[in-house]
Amino acid sequence: GAGVSQTPSNKVTEKGKYVELRCDPISGHTALYWYRQSLGQGPEFLIYFQGTGAADDSGLPNDRFFAVRPEGSVSTLKIQRTERGDSAVYLCASSFRGEAYNEQFFGPGTRLTVL
Amino acid sequence: GQNIDQPTEMTATEGAIVQINCTYQTSGFNGLFWYQQHAGEAPTFLSYNVLDGLEEKGRFSSFLSRSKGYSYLLLKELQMKDSASYLCAVVDSNYQLIWGAGTKLIIKP
């Protein structure tokens, strides 16, 4: 079956612009996670969805970041007024039910570059 | 605060054995994951430990000691394709994954 997919794979934008990053999780996975990863660092948690609702958004750095998952499947991470410090690889992961022992399956990531 | 410590980089020889250590201090503990990440790729699952002891899976084994806040990943019969970063991640009391910065493993022929 298909794994987690993310689009676009690369996004270059200018400071101050708005961007949307899309994640298609594995079919049947109710839990969906967004992370961002900088070079030489581990993933940094942003937000976790269980179904359609954001169960934990404590990792979103500020109100410029927002994510939705309206139908409990595809999710979109939205970043307003992008800043150079937002440049990173944005990873999406899904897991079967979000239980502690459920492994997370990661997508290939979107590399965001803010000029 | 929450903290996961791993060595930044390790070097080993093809065919040898290497042990990558991870120590953690987190608010609660609901298990520890090891993931492998090749350069420019997404992390992929290697192991999950929640009870003390050694879990063996082919060439890879993972050990956990909850009382010491310590885990290690043991890789045997190293192959060149094992060159990658190895990430330790702990599930905390909020069921959130807290990630280490990863250990870059370099395999030399």
Number of DSSP strand runs of chain A: 11
Provide the structure class of chain A.
mainly beta
**Beta-strand share of residues of chain B:** over 45%
The greatest interface here is: A-B, 23 and 23 residues
Shape of chain A: globular
* Secondary-structure element order of chain A, N to C: EEEEEEEEEEE
Number of helices of chain A: 0
Quaternary class: heterodimer
Overall pLDDT metric of chain A: 94
Rg of Cα set of chain B: 13 Å
Distance between the termini of chain A: 37 Å
State the low-pLDDT regions of chain A, or none: none
Spans of chain B of 5+ residues with little confidence (pLDDT < 50)?
A: none
Model description:
The complex is a heterodimer of chains A (115) and B (109). Chain A has 115 residues and is an all-beta fold. Chain A has strands at residues 5-7, 10-13, 19-24, 31-37, 44-50, 53-56, 65-68, 75-79, 88-95, 105-106, 110-114. Chain A is globular, with a radius of gyration of 13 Å. In chain A, the strands form 2 sheets. In chain A, strands 2, 4, 5, 6, 9, 10 and 11 form a 7-stranded mixed beta sheet that branches. In chain A, strands 1-3-8-7 form a 4-stranded antiparallel beta sheet, with no helix packed on it. With 109 residues, chain B is mainly beta. Chain B has no helices and 11 strands. Chain B has strands at residues 3-5, 9-13, 18-25, 32-37, 44-49, 53-57, 60-65, 70-75, 84-91, 97-99, 103-108. In chain B, strands 2, 4, 5, 9, 10 and 11 form a 6-stranded mixed beta sheet that branches. In chain B, strands 1-3-8-7-6 form a 5-stranded antiparallel beta sheet, with no helix packed on it. Chain B is globular, with a radius of gyration of 13 Å. The mean pLDDT of chain B is 95. The interface between A and B is medium-sized, with 23 and 23 residues.
What secondary-structure arrangement, pairings included, does this model have?
The complex is a heterodimer of chains A (115) and B (109).
Chain A: E1 5-7, E2 10-13, E3 19-24, E4 31-37, E5 44-50, E6 53-56, E7 65-68, E8 75-79, E9 88-95, E10 105-106, E11 110-114
Parallel strand pairs in A: 2-11
Antiparallel strand pairs in A: 1-3, 3-8, 4-5, 4-9, 5-6, 7-8, 9-10, 9-11
Chain B: E1 3-5, E2 9-13, E3 18-25, E4 32-37, E5 44-49, E6 53-57, E7 60-65, E8 70-75, E9 84-91, E10 97-99, E11 103-108
Parallel strand pairs in B: 2-11
Antiparallel strand pairs in B: 1-3, 3-8, 4-5, 4-9, 6-7, 7-8, 9-10, 9-11
